[in-house]
Design a protein that fits this description.
This protein is mainly beta. It has two domains: 1-42, no CATH class; 45-250, Fumarylacetoacetate hydrolase, domain 2 (Alpha-Beta Complex), CATH 3.90.850.10. The chain contains four helices and 20 strands. The chain has helices spanning 60-66, 120-125, 151-155, 199-207; strands spanning 2-4, 10-16, 19-23, 31-37, 42-44, 51-56, 75-80, 84-85, 91-92, 101-103, 105-111, 127-135, 137-138, 161-168, 177-182, 185-191, 217-219, 227-229, 234-239, 243-250. The strands form four sheets. Strands 7-6-17-11-12-14-8 form a seven-stranded mixed beta sheet. Strand 2 (10-16) and strand 3 form a beta hairpin. Residues 256-268 have low confidence and may be disordered. It comes from Paraburkholderia saeva. Keywords: Metal-binding. InterPro entries: Fumarylacetoacetase-like_C (IPR011234), Fumarylacetoacetase_C_sf (IPR036663). This is Fumarylacetoacetase-like C-terminal domain-containing protein.
């Protein structure tokens, strides 16, 4: 996990029993020897990606529902670094947009080593761990212009990529479900075993298109159950073994503190 200390320093490390065992960084996960109480720290997104690669149509169930063919290569877009926020941070409605805002609960892959033209085996070795992503979308912008689908604009606003609360190495993703709730009501509950491309396959194939750097995140795509969020609603996305990512949709211009946060359930 990553935190901010009272002096504004960013600290990263392994969390156990309420204490952070500090590492030099995600790029260099070597213990520094420092041990800090998490009660004196402020949680932030567990990594600071240079880019987020977000997949579309990566689940068989959703492809069948949409009557879309299963792709032969990951279909993806790029979300900017500025869109990333952590668990507990508010999703800010853009000043210029009053339409529907949608949630998408997803598994996130965090890259640990520079990866380019990698085999599936090399790609697997480059994965640092797994996190949770809420890929937020200004849904009505996607097809606002009939001549050009606006994937980047609709998904790239500041705060539109919620990531956290932790990165977990060695996750048995095959056995996990993604559970998304809006104000406590379950909206998504789907198995990660239904993915078209496994995490290692995603990393390998995407690395042949562009270089993946340490800290970059691949959002593995979502399945059935995507819907819209009302202003003031809280979205939680949970994956057993990682925890719960919680964010509220705030009105444009509201403060940066979330009014009510669902406590993160961290497995370390």
């Amino acid at each position: 996990m990553r935190f901010k200390s009272n002096d504004g320093k960013t600290v990263f490390g392994r969390v156990e029993n309420g204490y952070l065992h500090e590492y030099a960084g995600l790029h260099d996960p070597v213990p520094t020897g420092a041990v800090l109480s998490t009660r004196a720290l402020s949680q932030i997104a567990p990594c600071a990606p240079g880019k987020v690669v977000a997949l579309w149509n990566n689940f068989h169930a959703l492809a069948a529902k949409l009557d879309k063919p299963v792709p032969s290569h990951p279909l993806f877009l790029i979300k900017p670094a500025e869109s990333v926020i952590g668990s507990g941070d508010p999703i800010q409605r853009p000043v210029s947009y009053a339409g529907k805002i949608a949630y998408e609960g997803e598994l996130g892959i965090v890259i640990g080593k520079r990866c380019r033209n990698a085999s599936v085996e090399e790609a697997a070795a480059s994965i640092f761990g797994y996190t949770i992503v809420n890929d937020v979308t200004a849904a009505e912008l996607l097809n606002e212009n009939p001549h050009f689908p606006q994937w980047c604009r609709a998904k790239g606003f500041d705060t539109f990529c919620c990531v956290g609360p932790a990165i977990v190495s060695g996750l048995d993703w095959h056995a996990c479900h993604v559970v998304t709730k809006v104000d406590g009501v379950e909206r998504q509950n789907y198995p990660l075993s239904d993915m078209v491309f496994s995490p290692a396959e995603q990393v390998s194939m995407i690395s042949h298109d562009l270089t993946l750097e340490p800290g970059d995140v691949i959002a593995c795509g979502t399945s059935i159950g995507v819907g819209s969020i009302k202003d003031g609603a809280t979205v939680t996305v949970s994956i057993e073994g990682i925890g719960t990512l919680s964010n509220i949709l705030a009105l444009a211009g509201e403060g940066t503190q979330q009014a009510a946060i669902t406590a993160a359930s961290i497995s370390v």
